[in-house]
Write a structure and sequence with these properties.
The structure is a single chain. With 125 residues, the chain is of the alpha+beta class. It contains six helices and five strands; from the N terminus they run αααβββααββα. The strands form two sheets. Strands 3-5-4 form a three-stranded antiparallel β-sheet, with helices on one face. Strands 1-2 form a two-stranded antiparallel sheet. A hairpin with a 2-residue loop joins β4 (105-110) and β5. The chain is globular, with a radius of gyration of 17 Å.
Length: 125
């Protein structure tokens, strides 16, 4: 009986996880456990960029404009990152600049938002 209950729990949990998986680099996991809040926030933003970047080249319509989106790019807004992370909007730019200074990403402004390329994305797939 317990075995059947465990199998059901496993199945239910797998359904909640969903199909897509993202590999999380060890450096992000390490940062997430850091005592320093800034480091934890940088890790969270980096993770969200990885979890939400495009896995294939495609044309994306963002705010009525078409963009050729490449693999490993996120197109969106600082507000989206703030909403997803719970980090204040005013801190998002500073966290992205820190990741950019570490050569982990590059941020380019686009009409109404930003295009962020995540370096090393092939390693996460």
């Amino acid at each position: 009986m317990k075995k059947d209950l465990d199998a059901k729990k496993e199945k239910d949990a797998a359904e909640k996880w969903g199909i897509p998986y993202v590999k999380i680099p060890g450096s992000i996991l390490k940062r997430m456990k850091n005592q320093n809040q800034l480091e934890r926030r940088v890790a969270l933003i980096h993770f969200l960029l990885i979890a939400n970047y495009h896995y294939s080249e495609q044309v994306l319509v963002f705010r009525k404009n078409e963009y050729q989106c490449k693999k490993g790019e996120f197109i969106g807004t600082y507000q989206q990152l703030s909403d997803w992370s719970g980090i204040p909007l005013g801190s998002i730019g500073r966290l992205l600049r820190k990741l950019e200074a570490e050569n982990m990403i590059v941020v380019n402004k686009i009409s109404g938002g930003c295009r962020i390329r995540v370096y090393g994305y092939r390693e996460y797939m």
